[in-house]
Amino acid sequence: MPWFKVDDKLHGHKKPRRAGVAAMGLWVLAGSWAAADLSDGFVPESVCAQWAPKDYRKLGGALVAAGLWSAHVKDGEAGWLFHDWT
I need a labelling partner for 67 at 20 to 30 A (CA). Which of 19, 31, 56, 76 fits? Predict the structure, then answer.
């Protein structure tokens, strides 16, 4: 069973501070989903839209700008890829 582990120093790192609290909430939920789905760190837009229907693109963009995600397409589906997932 995979785990999505969050470092206990995450709160003090510059990337989460840049992304903001709301984007980091999406990051944690998406990380949990990616681990459970065994997606190799890819999270489709459609999954993020379930948690933040109005803001998922803005929040995803904040995570990209902070260097936590990159825009990615997998099997024709747009979404994001976690930085250094493996």
Answer: 76
